[in-house]
Amino acid sequence: MSRESTLRFGAQTDEVTSLLRIVNLVRTGEAATRPEIGRVTGLGRGVVTQRVDQAIDMGFLADGEYGPSSGGRAPRTLRFRSEQGRIIVCAFGALHIRVGIASLDGDIIDDRHIGWDIARGPAETIDRALELADEILARHEDVPVWGVAVGIPGPVDFDSGRPVAPPIMPGWNGFDMRRRFEERFDAPTWVDNDVNLLAFSERSRRQDERLDLIFFKVGTGIGAGLLSQGRIHRGANGAAGDVGHVRVLESNSQCRCGKVGCLEAEAGGWALVRDAERAVADGAGGTLARDAADGEPITPQAIAIAAMNGDALAISLIQRSARLVGESIAALVNMFNPAVIVVGGAVSSAGEVFLAEVRQRVYELSLPLATRDLAIVRSLGDEREPLRGGAEMVREQLFETTFPRWFAEGRPTIRDVMPAAS
């Protein structure tokens, strides 16, 4: 915060607190008119008018339409000016890049999606993501970027924004992810695990601020995003939810992380592709074998589609994966007691072929009390989910975690939002 802002606002704690609260009440939809603000906050009419006028002058709020009348003059509604800033989201997957821009209310305005191997390394990958972001921004009105979200398929130290020994991302360990984005957009940047972004997306879609949920992704790799009372649980070092590397009993399969017997090495998409290719090489027939003979690559998506179409090899692979995944989810259910399990990822796109096995194992192995009100569902499978989740993560950081530090500036700055050392 600038020295002038400190002098102007520092000694007026009550005023700043009430001003912040009013902006957030309007932003979240808890109060839409001046009388509603007065009822929620207990502030007098004159004080509410003064604070609202200040928020309008600072550019946070604007007058909207007239609301319904309760007998007298209809009150004027207020709206948060979500158009005054943009959020950029870069969601990196093992084999793709998704980039989008969102308004400050989290709505995705525009996006791009390309195939990309993240093993090509951080420099080339981030260059391509920035090119995509520039292409999208060029199609829209020039509006300041207020925040950037980056999701990666590996463990992240959330405080520093650096990947920590990501198994499928050679060359990324300890890489300063924030610097390139902050230099390009002059905006605070947060980096998180890709599955956490999917959990944020579910929270936003369900509009439940106290949600207990696990998003379990079974794609090329395996990971889980944990929501406890609406808050992402990242753990002490950002490794929470990295269930893909839990040991499977009696497994000797080599994992990409360098260890042996990991869940991902038995049930992840890349493991299913490995097993399918071996079976075809050994003479297995069916859809996958015919596709391979025609030169079509076997992918996790292809296995899921073949299973839905009745291919015996694909069904056996999908069901085995689901049983192992269900056992891991059961352990999480007993420890975490969520209300909802959302299963997503390419392997889970086999639908009930996959989900039925997961449910059976979870209910067999979990405590009755933990499953009494438990819902196990598939994700919507919307390709924009990680983008919405990234926007939601940035909104949480901007308006719940760091808002008081940059509020007087009128917009977030890196120095007021991000930790001093990274």
From TrEMBL:
Superkingdom of origin organism: Bacteria
A Pfam family annotated for this UniProt entry:
ROK
| Any coiled-coil regions, as ranges | none
Q: Which InterPro entries match?
A: ATPase_NBD, ROK, ROK_cs, WH-like_DNA-bd_sf, WH_DNA-bd_sf
Stated family: Belongs to the ROK (NagC/XylR) family.
Q: What is this protein called?
A: ROK family protein
